[in-house]
Amino acid sequence: MERAAVFDVDGTLVDTNHLHVTSWWEAFRQAGHRVPMHAVHRAVGLPSSDLVARLLGGDRDTGRDEELSAAHKALYGQWFDRLPAFADAGRLLKRLHRDGWTVVLATSAGGTELSALRRAIDADEAIAATASADDVEEGKPAPEPVEHALGLAGVPAERAVFVGDTVWDMRAGERAGVRCVGVLCGGIPRADLVEAGADAVYDDPAHLLASLSEGPLA
């Protein structure tokens, strides 16, 4: 039977979380908001509108949400030509592909941002499909991105594993009914990932690759 390995990208395969934090922090600063970087970090992984709502609250001027999102996108876009993949991220996807897994990306990125991330990973031959922000109505922690990824893979939830780095990833995977694997390279504590639904937690893609023979992706 087919089986699917679904991967988040930012903070999971590519070392971008702190670039997002800095870009969001500067976007908020330019708009006159003082938002601590640690608070931004905990919100990374949410769709832009949800991130802004979480950090600025319901009484904010919602008419400026798109302006904030555009500022973040422009600031973050300065890094597109040098986004760093985590060690062995591409090797992990290629190994899973060789082992018979259908590899699908489930990410809030889209367009040129997604293209930049895929260039960084450098494993296009192993990636069967991508469920991006352009394809779904609701982002994580809603299950829709993971469910869409499963649909692209043609695999039921019980035959899939979802790998991510945030509590939003774990909650999305759990709600979609898949086994969840967390990685610590995005900067979220192990205990938080486990509480959110992670069945197993690894340091990073290299650690997961080295542990394939005994983990959920065996």
TrEMBL record:
EC number: 3.-.-.-
One Pfam family this sequence matches: Hydrolase
Keywords: Hydrolase
GO function term, MF aspect, one: hydrolase activity
Top-level taxon in the UniProt lineage: Bacteria
Gene3D superfamilies from the UniProt entry: HAD superfamily/HAD-like, Putative phosphatase, domain 2
NCBIfam families attached to this UniProt entry: HAD-SF-IA-v3 (TIGR01509)
Name of this chain's protein: HAD family hydrolase
Native source organism of the sequence: Streptomyces edwardsiae
